[in-house]
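Appendix C reproduces, verbatim, an entry submitted by the partner laboratory led by Prof. M.T., so that reviewers can inspect both the input and the predicted structure.
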Amino acid sequence: MNKTEMKESILQAKFDKNLKWVDLAEAAGLSPEFTCSACLGMNHLEKKSADAVASLLDMGSELSDALQKFPNKVWEQKVPTDPVIYRWYEIVGVYGETIKEMISEKFGDGIMSAIDFSMNIEKQEDPKGDRVIVTLNGKFLPYKTW
C-alpha cells in the first residue's frame, strides 16, 4: 500500500466508523495534529502507534506498514526560492490538508483568517465569532448559502 492508497483508506474508514482525529490520536498516543498529518501521508508513525491506528480502524498490517514508511513530502505547486516565502509554502504544502481536515471537523465548512503560525489546533468560543486556534489564531469565517 502506498501513501496515497493509505490516505484514502484511512479517510474512508474514519468516515465509516464516525471517528474523529482525536480518536485516532488517542489510540496512537500522539497529538491529533501530528496523527492527522501522518494519516494524510506527510509524516510517519512508529510501529506501536501505527499498529494502534490500524487496529482502531479494523485494518491490518498493510496499513500499519504504510503508516511507518517515511513520507516523500512533495506537492504539485511551484514554490518560490526565497527562504521566507518558501517556508510558508512548506507549511501549507505539508500541513495545509491537515489544517483543513481539523478545521472542517471542528467547525464545519469555512475558512480561517491566518495571522500567526505554530501547530496546535483547538476551538475557542468568542462572542465576536468563534476563534480557530491553530496557533495561527485565526477567526473562523463560515461559508454562507444563499
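The domain at 3-68 is CATH 1.10.260.40 (434 Repressor (Amino-terminal Domain)). Additional entries are available on request from the coordinating office.
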